[in-house]
From TrEMBL:
<keyword id="KW-0934">Plastid</keyword>
<keyword id="KW-0808">Transferase</keyword>
<dbReference type="InterPro" id="IPR044878">
    <property type="entry name" value="UbiA_sf"/>
</dbReference>
<dbReference type="GO" id="GO:0004659">
    <property type="term" value="F:prenyltransferase activity"/>
</dbReference>
<feature type="transmembrane region" description="Helical">
    <location>
        <begin position="136"/>
        <end position="159"/>
    </location>
</feature>
<dbReference type="GO" id="GO:0009507">
    <property type="term" value="C:chloroplast"/>
</dbReference>
<keyword id="KW-0812">Transmembrane</keyword>
<feature type="transmembrane region" description="Helical">
    <location>
        <begin position="236"/>
        <end position="258"/>
    </location>
</feature>
<dbReference type="InterPro" id="IPR044502">
    <property type="entry name" value="AtHST-like"/>
</dbReference>
<protein>
    <recommendedName>
        <fullName>Homogentisate phytyltransferase</fullName>
    </recommendedName>
</protein>
<dbReference type="GO" id="GO:0010189">
    <property type="term" value="P:vitamin E biosynthetic process"/>
</dbReference>
<feature type="region of interest" description="Disordered">
    <location>
        <begin position="42"/>
        <end position="73"/>
    </location>
</feature>
<feature type="transmembrane region" description="Helical">
    <location>
        <begin position="312"/>
        <end position="339"/>
    </location>
</feature>
<dbReference type="GO" id="GO:0016020">
    <property type="term" value="C:membrane"/>
</dbReference>
<feature type="transmembrane region" description="Helical">
    <location>
        <begin position="180"/>
        <end position="205"/>
    </location>
</feature>
<dbReference type="InterPro" id="IPR000537">
    <property type="entry name" value="UbiA_prenyltransferase"/>
</dbReference>
<dbReference type="Pfam" id="PF01040">
    <property type="entry name" value="UbiA"/>
</dbReference>
Length: 397
């Protein structure tokens, strides 16, 4: 009996820490029952005058069990159920907060830039392996994933540091970004970008040697001076375009291809397809740098950020970007025609012709829409889709 009493007491003590209401109710009920068994005198009670049936008090008193002054058997279960529901609500709240933080971090990384980095890396690694199929070692797959993780970290650092110093502009141009929307604090953003930079550098230094590490540091440096005062080179259109074209065009393509050949035990050597994609994507990145300011004209003018779009107008810059891309596609078609030994003409010519026609059609839609902000944003997204498409077809050409 004493053992059962001790077990019951320890069980109530454990419940007390998780649900004070249950502990209070059972303790009160036990004290009443103990007093009844020992026939201890209870305190005198004043006579009870029951209110009318419609009174809430009557309903409450009617709900209280009266046998021996003790709650009925279902009462402890009620309090345990209440505590379980409270714990479940707390767990649900925590899950919701974690989900919201994950969503904020994903938007902070600018997913469209991550897709470009990922597709570019996969395409260049695939091309290097297709050129040397006899040297393929599937254990190098892990090294490729390390490289991709490092590139995503570098991408996250560059776009993140830009958002930290562009909060005011983003509240006008991109209010959906997490810092501008208030979904991510500046302190949390700083922690994220520093973690991205440190993790990327550690991965590259540990796996890819000093030369690739120096290229990686150069990319981080260019991304920093692009956004951070007192440099903030994004204020100067030509310099800003060159930085974006260098990082997203040359450094990404050259660095990934160099690292892949080094992992295969080969010295670096330009091939015709890799030379083509590096030149093509560098010019494409320049177009992205020009057209990225099209949806941001309102905020750039408000904060006196000088861009080609604010100087020359949205329509002129849209035509300039489309013209440069058409020249890029025409060049790709001519290269395939005049160098059939290096390229698959049957794929390269029709693929680039279709992409060029799609671009012309999208520019026509933009013209018909009178360059509204929604139409401009759609045009800019289409340019990114063309960028993805080029990397998708690259291993096949």
């Amino acid at each position: 009996m004493a053992l059962l009493s001790s077990s019951s007491s320890s069980h109530r003590t454990s419940l007390a820490s998780s649900c004070p209401q249950f502990y209070a109710a059972t303790s009160h009920a036990d004290s009443i029952g103990f007093r009844h068994r020992l026939r201890l005198p209870s305190r005198p009670r004043p006579p009870i005058s029951f209110p009318r049936a419609s009174s809430p008090t009557h309903s409450l008193l009617g709900a209280i069990p009266r046998s021996h002054g003790r709650p009925r058997g279902r009462s402890p279960r009620f309090f345990v159920s209440a505590c379980s529901k409270a714990d479940a609500a707390g767990s649900s709240t925590l899950t919701t907060k974690l989900s919201e933080f994950r969503d904020s971090c994903w938007r902070f990384l600018r997913p469209h830039t991550i897709r470009g980095t990922t597709l570019g890396s996969i395409a260049l690694v695939a091309k290097a392996l297709m050129e040397n199929p006899n040297l393929i070692n599937w254990w190098l797959t892990f090294k490729a994933f390390y490289g991709l993780a490092a590139l995503i970290c570098g991408n996250g650092y560059i776009v993140g540091i830009n958002q930290i110093y562009d909060i005011g502009i983003d509240k006008v141009n991109k209010p959906y970004l997490p810092i501008a929307a208030g979904d991510l604090s500046v302190q949390s953003a700083w922690i994220l970008v520093l973690l991205f930079a440190a993790a990327g550098l550690l991965i590259v230094a540990w796996n890819f040697g000093p030369f690739i590490t120096s290229l990686y540091c150069l990319g981080l440096f260019l991304g920093t001076i692009y956004s951070v005062p007192p440099f903030r080179l994004k204020r100067f259109p030509v310099v800003a375009f060159l930085i974006i074209a260098t990082v997203r065009g040359f450094l990404l393509n050259f660095g990934v291809y160099y690292a892949t050949r080094a992992a295969l035990g080969l010295s670096f050597k330009w091939s015709a397809p890799v030379t083509f994609i590096t030149a093509f994507v560098t010019l494409f990145a320049l177009v992205i740098a020009i057209t990225k300011d099209l949806p941001d004209v309102e905020g750039d003018r408000k904060f006196q950020i000088s861009t080609l779009a604010t100087r020359l107008g949205v329509r002129n810059i849209a035509f300039l970007g489309a013209g440069l891309l058409l020249a890029n596609y025409l060049g790709a078609i001519l290269v395939a025609i005049y160098m059939p030994e290096a390229f698959r003409r049957s794929i390269m010519v029709p693929a680039h012709a279709l992409l060029a026609l799609g671009l012309i059609f999208q520019a026509w839609i933009l013209e018909q829409a009178k360059y509204t902000k929604e139409a401009i944003s759609q045009f800019y997204r289409f340019i990114w889709n063309l960028f993805y498409a080029e990397y998708i077809i690259f291993p096949l050409i």
